[in-house]
Amino acid sequence: MPETPTAAPTLQPPPEGIFRTFEDLLSSVQRWAKDHGYGIVKLRASNYRDGKPTRYDLVCDRGGVKYNSTAKKRTPSTRKENTPIAQSIRSFTNKLDRLTHDVSQGFMHIGQRLDNIEKQLMDLRGHMGAYEPRFQGLESRMQAVEARGDIQLGPMDDVDVDTRILASM
Length: 169
Prior knowledge:
The protein is an alpha+beta fold. It has helices at 22-35, 93-148, 161-167, and strands at residues 40-49, 52-60, 86-90. Among the domains are: 12-63 and 79-91, no CATH class; 105-149.
């Protein structure tokens, strides 16, 4: 009589959450799995940034394909059963660090631009200081000319500018 395949029991995944470290996450997931009759192990870590992995692959401890070796005839006490549980976990802290790094670099560029603008303003003030004695000299000469009464504007005093402009067209 042929054997009828029995359906594998449905295993509940661990609850979602945010954890401070990967170790906290792994211990929480492993506790949950043990309480529900299965085990979780770390398969691999990848996507390294600054020497730290940003992604971990967690799988059922009995997942994977059973290895059939002809070299040894020992029967292991635990067996691979090809269970379908597998999960990838990503770390967002490194992404946040990169974002804040980009923002701080932007602020640094803005600070450099403001420093350049401030330097240009200081240079302009320095140049204005050099012109100040010239303006004072010009002003004193104008006052001397006005005091003597030497200013003669000539025939332009009685000329209507509007009629003169219209006449030239």
